[in-house]
Write a structure and sequence with these properties.
166 residues, alpha+beta, Alpha-Beta Plaits, SH3 type barrels, five-stranded antiparallel sheet, four-stranded antiparallel sheet, elongated
């Protein structure tokens, strides 16, 4: 019975009560996955207590290690190719949670933004968002490539934001 109760605890509550710390490691941009794999091999061969290695797609040039102490991080990255060093300080779980937690597309889009329709009969057409219905998970679009004003309502899964110019 007790085993089932412990298994029902969420990972978030376990992370908040653990004594482990999160450290950011600077790497060569584009080599985050390679560095993470090299650290994994070193942790297994040297029996280092590294509990997680995060290589996040929206965090270029950095990987995050979860370890009990800084000395383990230095032991893990010593002499590895593409490692530029360790950033100062530790990361808080709240900061990491914001990076890890997936955000739905409906939270990212705004009225007036230009999007591309990727499914349905209007696939491949550019459109402008005129209304967002978060409760029904739908958006109303004004199709830009139509010869007359055409307003359609589609599920948010049918669109993707157009490439923004910087």
């Amino acid at each position: 019975m007790e085993v089932a109760d412990k298994g029902s605890e969420s990972n978030t509550s376990l992370m908040k009560t653990s004594k482990n710390m999160f450290f950011a490691i600077r790497t060569t941009a584009g080599q985050e996955t390679n560095v993470a794999l090299m650290i994994e091999v070193r942790a297994k061969t040297s029996n280092l207590p590294i509990y997680s290695i995060l290589s996040l797609p929206n965090l270029k040039g950095y990987i995050v290690l979860e370890t009990p102490g800084l000395h383990i991080v230095y032991e893990a990255i010593r002499g590895l190719k593409h490692v530029k060093g360790k950033t100062s300080g530790t990361l808080r779980w709240e900061d990491l949670e914001a990076l890890i937690k997936p955000r739905s597309l409906i939270e990212l889009i705004q009225v007036g933004e230009e999007v591309e329709v990727v499914a349905g009969p209007f696939r491949g057409m550019k459109a402008k968002i005129i209304a967002i219905d978060k409760t029904r998970n739908e958006v109303s679009l004004n199709v830009l490539e139509a010869s007359y004003p055409l307003t359609i309502t589609v599920p948010v899964d049918y669109i993707r934001p157009s490439k923004r110019e910087m």
